[in-house]
Amino acid sequence: MKPLFSQPPRIDAGLFFLRLTGCLLLLYVHGLPKVFHFSEELTRIEDPFGLGPYMSLLPAIFAEVICPLFILAGVFTLPACLSVIGVLLVAMVFVHPDWSMVEGQFGWLLLIIFTTLAITGPGRWRLGGGTRREVRYGAG
C-alpha cells in the first residue's frame, strides 16, 4: 500500500535546492564574515538585550555558521532551523524594527526559507537518508 503522503522525487530535489541555496546565502553573507572578522564584529554587533558583545555574537555565529551546516547535511534540521529563525527574528524585530520591507527583504526572505524547511523537513536527499525523519515530518 502506498503511503498517504508520499512525495515525488522532484520534491526532494526542491527541498535539497532550498537547503543548499538558503544555507550558502546565510553562510556567505552573514556567518563567515562574523567568523573571519570576529574582533571587528565584537565592536559593532548590536546588543538588543544588554548581554554584551560576546553573548550577542556567539549565538549569531552558531545560527549562521553551525546550523546551516546541519541543515545543508539534512541532520537536526528542525532545531537548526529554529535557531536560525530565532536569530533572524531578533535581528528583524529588535535590532532593526525601523527597517522598511525593502530594507529588510533579505532577512524576511531568509525567514521564509528556513521556516519552510522547519515545516517540511529536509526531504530524503540528506545524510543518513532513511525513513525515520520522513515519518516525523508527515511525509510517509
Automatic annotation (TrEMBL):
Positions of transmembrane segments: 12-31, 51-71, 78-96, 108-127
Keyword flag Membrane: yes
InterPro entries on file: DoxX
Localization per Swiss-Prot or TrEMBL: Membrane
Signal peptide: none
Keyword Hydrolase: no
Domain of life: Bacteria
Annotated keywords: Membrane, Transmembrane, Transmembrane helix
Chief site of localization: membrane
Membrane-related topology note: Multi-pass membrane protein
Protein name per Swiss-Prot or TrEMBL: DoxX family protein
Phylogenetic lineage: Bacteria, Pseudomonadati, Pseudomonadota, Gammaproteobacteria, Enterobacterales
